[in-house]
Amino acid sequence: MAEVNPPAWMQAGSYPARNDRLGAISSMLCYPGFAADEATPLRIRQGVKPSYQNYQLKVRAAATPNMTVIVSAGFAWVDNHDVGGFGAYCCVNDADKILTIQPSGAAGQYRKDAVVASVYDAETSGSASEWRIEVIQGAYAATAGAAVLPALPNSAQILASVAVDATVTSITAGKIADMRNYTVAAGGILPTTLNTYPTRPHPGQTMYLTDTDLYVYGKADGTVVPLALGTGAFAFARKSADTPRASTITMSADPHLTVPVATFATYTVDAYLIYSGSTTGDVNVALSGPTSSDGSWSAVGYGRDVPANVATGGHTIRMNPNSIIAVQPRSYGADTVDESLHLRGILRTAGAAGSLAVQWSQAASDTTATIMRTDSWLRVQRVA
Predict the structure, then answer these.
(1) Where are the alpha helices (DSSP H) in the chain?
(2) Rounded Cα–Cα distance for residues 360 and 206 (Å)
(3) What was the pLDDT predicted at 1?
(4) Which of 34, 89, 216, 315 has its CA 20 to 30 A from that of 120?
(5) Each residue of 13-32: pLDDT tens digit?
(6) What single string gives the DSSP state of each residue in 85-153?
(7) 310 near 304, Cβ under 8 Å?
(8) CB of 196 within 8 A of CB of 231?
(9) What whole-number percentage of the chain has pLDDT above 90?
């Protein structure tokens, strides 16, 4: 089949609902932007309509927690994944929907359930013709960490995951993880996050990264670059909450101190890190950049006697530059009162877009947490 005829809304025309889905819904929504969808050009980015505080179809706990969750009113667009090229469905929920979460049963049984917006169309599969907000129950696991999400219906948009602990009697807000995608009309600004934005958006697709407060856009070569980072422009990230890390020397990126950077660009780097901990655990700090990037940094911070594994007091500058691409950590002392670390450097990117991130851990494993504090910040300025 080639041309889909007749076109939607032709005078005296007669056509199936598929034509309306393709012409009035799918054609108006943005491209999904992932490699897996490129073989089916009529695919759309399915998801929930953005709104103030992204409240549409939000899954939340009951005011007095029990074994239910509540799904707010809202709109979702769900693509038909039973048959390629059958278009997207507009799904509307006009009031709070209460869903029951089944108890976990015996001790040692843990689950991860999925709350989804599912479309069932008898034209392409099965006998039902409706959409539902429903809970898909996960398989039992021996530990919470081993629990995984269940397989979802073919044509479904996941809204949230719900962690169901052994012998649980109520579902609290902390057990609900928001997993909604958002979608907009073609050409609209797409809300997403640094770790989930489409890797292959159409050229010019603008996206707002809700977790870093930055705009990025797609280029014709398939890369994603910051919208505002022309020469002289800044990108800035601030910690909005404390992050504690205890009993670990494994370096990992801070959840807040990450900024996207463009390809083939040069940036100066500044950071102001506030932290506390024990004089045993102290802190290791490094910077990491995109693949094939290069650069170096140094910092002024609270001194640490590495062989003696103790903080020495006083402020010390690490004069030798530390590699960004090698994620070369340096150790600094910590104390029970807040200390600060002042970092400066340079980053040169190559052909891979990505992010510059502050990586850190304890310098020595200790049960007293090292805490990276609120209002620590990372800033880059493009200079070439």
Answers:
(1) 17-20
(2) 31
(3) 55
(4) 34
(5) 788 898 889 888 998 998 88
(6) T--EEEEEE-S-EEEEPPP--STT-BEEEEEEEEEE-TTTSSS--EEEEEEEPPPPBSSGGG--PPPPP
(7) yes
(8) no
(9) 54
